[in-house]
Design goal:
With 252 residues, this protein is of the alpha/beta class. The chain has 6 helices and 15 strands. α4 (158-168) runs parallel beside α5 and α5 (195-205) crosses α6.
Length: 252
Amino acid sequence: MGEVSIRYVGGPTAVVEICGFRLVTDPTFDAPGDYPIGNRKLVKTAGPAVEADETGAVDAVLLSHDQHPDNLDESGRAYLARVPLVLSTPAAHGRLGDAVTALPNWETYELGERLRITGVPALHGPEGAEALAGEVTGFVLHGDAVPTVYVSGDNASLDHVRAVAERFGPVDVAVLFAGAARTPLFDGAPLTLTSEAAAEAAQILGARHVVPLHFEHWGHFSEGADTLTEAFAAAGLSERLRLLKPGATFTE
C-alpha cells in the first residue's frame, strides 16, 4: 500500500500527496477580510499557513465548487491557471470553461497508470439545497495498491456518505469538510457536516483516519476543533481523528 500525506493549508485547502502525485483541494490563499456573495458577505478570519508559491509543483486541483469565495477565492482562481488539471463539477466547467475538466458523479479520471479519481455526490445544505447553494462534488482517490481517500467537499448529507461507502468503503482516509457552516440562506440549517455527523460519517465509511478541513478560519462556521474532539470521543472514535494545526502534515 502506498503512502498518503495531507498538509493542512487552512479552510478547505490542503496539499495531498499520493501515489507520486501532488493534489490541492479547494485553493483559497486570500488574506482575512470580508468577501461578498450576492447580497451577503462571508468573513475570513485567518489567512493560509502555506502560501500559493509554497505548494510546489501540483498535478491537479480537486475543486468541490467554484461559486463560493470560501472554496475558491481570487488568489485561488489565479492559482488554477498554473495547474495542468482542475477537476470539478459540470457547472464549474460551464462557468470557468476549459480551465476546468468536468467530473460528473461516479465518473472516473485516470491520473497516470495507478491513481484514479472518481467524482461523488455532495449536497451543500439540507434536501433541496442545490437550487440555491449550487452544484458541489466530492472525490474518491483510489487504485491498485493505493490508499483509498475520500474528500467530501462541502457536503451535509449522510445519505451521500452512505452511497460512497457502498462503492468504496472501507476507506483509509476520510477528508471531511466539517464546521457545521450556517448562513441565513436555509434558516440556519447546516451547510456542511456537523461534528456529530462527521463522527457518524467516519463510522459509515469505516475510515481508519479522519482529517477534518473547513471547520475554522471563516465566521460562518458554528462548530470547530473542540466540538469535533467531543463528538469523536462520544462515538468512541478519538483514535481515528487527525486534527491538524495549520501548516502541519498527516502521513499514513
